[in-house]
Each structure stands twice: as structure tokens, then as C-alpha cells.
Write a structure and sequence with these properties.
With 136 residues, this protein is of the alpha/beta class. The chain has a single domain, classed as Rossmann fold (3-Layer(aba) Sandwich). Strands 2-1-3-4-5 form a five-stranded parallel sheet, with helices on both faces. α1 links the parallel β1 and β2. α1 packs parallel to α6. The longest helix is centred in the C-terminal third of the chain and has 15 residues. It is globular and about 35 Å long. The two termini are 20 Å apart.
């Protein structure tokens, strides 16, 4: 199976207008580096059962070449996705607002390519764009 997707992860259940705006900015930045992007906004639109949601997430990971994980808000589901990404040896870029606490367990993995703490969306886009340039 071809690994051709850039997967953006983040909290879905506690998303608000601010997090949706951030996801949109991350998507805009990632579109310069990949045509095949899947994000929390896509997950929010999915209407399947919990079992279907899980199977879908695990199947998406099989096609993922890079994960951009927005981790300002803790999310158990995102943690499950990232653990599977570690198992599948998928590289991960972590994004988090300044002052957020990112799991030390995750930071201890070899899959983390970079951790970007940001104050505003412009800073987020600039730094993420720079990281994606280095990886591509």
C-alpha cells in the first residue's frame, strides 16, 4: 500500500471555533507539501459508529507518510493514533500552543521530528512550513 497521505491529528470532541481555525491554518500550510491531507475536520464530518471510526482511523494510518499532531488539548483518541503511528514508524511533527503540556511519553519516542510551540497562527504556519520544507 502506498504511503501517500499527510495526516493531521488533534482533539475532535472538545474542538471549538479557535481549534477549527487552527486546523484550517495547518491544512493551508500542509497543502503546499502534500495533495493528500486528512484532518480532524474530516473526522468531525464522519457519521459512522465508534467501531467504524476506529477502523477508519487505523486504516488511514496505513497510508500515512507523516503526521502533524496539534497537541494543545489532551485527547485520548489522538494518543491512540499516535501510538499506532509509533508502532508503524511514521514520523511526527508536534504542534502546541505556548504553555501546553505535551506528553513526555510521546516526546520520548524516536518518531518525533520536531516540536513547535507557537504563540499565534502566523508563527505556527511559518515554523511548520519550515519543518515541512526540511522533510520534503
Amino acid at each position: 500500500m502506498k504511503k501517500d497521505m499527510l495526516l493531521i491529528t488533534g482533539t475532535v470532541t472538545s474542538s471549538n471555533n479557535e481549534s477549527i481555525e487552527i486546523y484550517n491554518k495547518i491544512i493551508d500550510t500542509c497543502k503546499k507539501y502534500s495533495e493528500n491531507i486528512y484532518s480532524p475536520l474530516d473526522t468531525m464530518q464522519f457519521k459512522g459508529s465508534n467501531e467504524e471510526r476506529y477502523k477508519r482511523a487505523m486504516a488511514l494510518l496505513q497510508r500515512t507518510k507523516l503526521i502533524v499532531a496539534e497537541m494543545s488539548t489532551p485527547s485520548t483518541g489522538q494518543g491512540m493514533e499516535l501510538q499506532e503511528a509509533v508502532r508503524l514508524n511514521i514520523p511526527i511533527i508536534i504542534l502546541a500552543k505556548e504553555g501546553s503540556q505535551v506528553s513526555g511519553l510521546l516526546l520520548g519516542t524516536n518518531n518525533i521530528k520536531s516540536v513547535i510551540y507557537y504563540d499565534n497562527v502566523e508563527m505556527l504556519q511559518t515554523e511548520l512550513g519550515g519543518e515541512l520544507n526540511e522533510i520534503s
